[in-house]
Amino acid sequence: MAVRTVAVGDPRAFEMVIADYSARGFLLVSKTETSALLRKPKQFNVLLAVLGAVLCLVGLLVYVIFYATQQDEVVEVRLVDRQAALEGAPFTLSPDGDWSPDGTQWWDGVAWRPVP
Q1: What's the rounded Cα separation, in Å, for the pair 89 and 91?
Q2: Which of 35, 56, 94, 103 has its CA 20 to 30 A from that of 46?
Q3: pLDDT of residue 95 exceeding 60
Q4: What does the alpha-carbon distance between residue 50 and residue 58 come to, in Å, rounded to a whole number?
């Protein structure tokens, strides 16, 4: 299971990132003063399963195999020194995050940062 790491530079942004992931369905597994681990369980889509069964039993079988191979999404949020966060601590960009209109920068909750 791959763990995505998000580095933030101050406690306020740390709490905001946790709240953002919680709003998107992630569950808080553990939290310390400097890190938090969140998990989003995979979800079985009943509509696709029924549609697959109605159209053809093979469709249902394909969906069940697809579901069985999925993994839960895991995100680790770390509170790091602000300078370390700006200089390249490991992080990933949220696909739902705030992007600049030209797509060259993203908002990390504190400041605009260039897209790596």
Answers
A1: 6
A2: 94
A3: no
A4: 12
